[in-house]
Amino acid sequence: MNFNSFPKVELHVHLDCCLSYEVVKVLNPAISYETYRESFIAPPKCIDLADYIKRAIKGFELMQTESQLRLVTRDLFRQLQADHVIYVEIRFAPLQHTYQGLVPEEVVEIVNDETLKCISDYNIEASIILCTLRHYSEEQSMETVQLLQKYKGTLVSGFDIAADEAGYPIHNHIKAFEFAHAHDIPCTAHAGEAKGAESMWETLRHFHPHRIGHGVRCVEDESLMEYLLAEKIHLEVCPTSNIQTNVFDTMQQHAADRIFNKGISMSINTDARTISDVTLSEEYTLLSKQFNWNVNHFKTCNLEAIQHAFTSLETKDKLVKIIQESY
Fold it and tell me: Which of 11, 57, 92, 236 has its CA 20 to 30 A from that of 300?
């Protein structure tokens, strides 16, 4: 089945991990296609998550000026339109884009402004998630989450923690998540990817997120799966990325089907369209072939994504209608 024509919702995609060759060529005219593939796209198998996300460095190095940020944001919307995405939550870490003089506020304002224009130009609804990173200090985490409070009422709507889950503990970030909850800022958090179920428990107990980025290693702990189900915690599942980072050896072993059949709320996402060299349509095709998923599986995942999206009820109602009519 060709899934390209079906409307889709994407909750988990990193802006600095989605630079197409076309936009990189504009930003760095000297780069060849071969060098681009070597530098920006991960192999089918990486050593681990830390190895995989090294490719993101090449992305944010080219996202340090206003014009660069605008070009990369617009480039992502072009990709999303081709993939028939109707709603996206774009995430990035503002502090990573300050190496050539921009301050975090400017970074957020630039991406917010360009996203607003792209919503109109590409007819795709969108929200923005700001990320702190595992290796950040407590001060950096607080600086990031306070940007969400500062830009309430814009497209900036959610807080996340990303980067190397296995390499860094959670302690530097507890205050930032406490701040988020005190100010009614919706939260998601990467967990259950580079580390197992114990990492998810730690994240849930200390950060209390509404959603979990990845979360696929919940299948290692039946009580955790029961908790996710009871608390209606949504999992942002990224199949291809999980195979590349060796969360699972093969797609046959991936937990997506077990999580779905358990009734846990989940969505399908690309994570990093360039690093994983994948579209949502291709992710759907993979799951269809591997687990015999049909349109009803993807309809359910998209409706769950909308229900747990960090956007207005008005937007959710509009998106639900589109999905209901198309699947």
Answer: 92
Side-by-side strand order, sheet with 234-237: 188-191, 211-214, 234-237, 266-268
Angle formed by the axes of helices 222-231 and 197-207, nearest 10°: 30
What's the rounded Cα separation, in Å, for the pair 285 and 262? 21
Q: For residue range 106-151, what is the model confidence (pLDDT) as tens digits?
A: 999 999 999 999 999 999 999 999 999 999 999 999 999 999 999 9
Question: The CATH number of the domain where 136 resides is what?
Answer: 3.20.20.140
Residue 162 inside a domain? The answer is yes
**pLDDT, tens digit (0-9, with 9 covering 90-100), for 71-114:** 999 999 999 999 999 999 999 999 999 999 999 999 999 999 99
Structure confidence at residue 184 (pLDDT): 97
Q: Which helix (H) or strand (E) holds 284?
A: helix 280-291
- Gap between the Cα atoms of 179 and 151, Å rounded: 15
Residue 305: which domain range?
8-326
Residue 238 domain-assigned (yes or no): yes
- Residue 75: count other Cβ atoms within 10 Å of its Cβ: 21
> Is the separation of the CB atoms in 87 and 308 below 8 Å?
no
- Report whether 143 contacts 109 (CB < 8 A): no
What does the DSSP assignment read for 33-100? HHHHHHHHS--SS-SSHHHHTHHHHHHHHT--SHHHHHHHHHHHHHHHHHTTEEEEEEEE-GGGG-TT
- The Cβ-side half-sphere exposure at 285, using a 13 Å CA radius, reads 11
1 occurs within a structural domain = no
pLDDT at 166 over 90: no
Q: What is the DSSP string of 210-259?
A: SEEEE-GGGGG-HHHHHHHHHHT-EEEE-HHHHHHTTSSSSGGG-SHHHH
- Whether residue 214 lies inside any domain: the answer is yes
Q: Is the pLDDT of residue 1 over 90?
A: no
Determine contact, residues 265/307, Cβ cutoff 8 Å.
yes
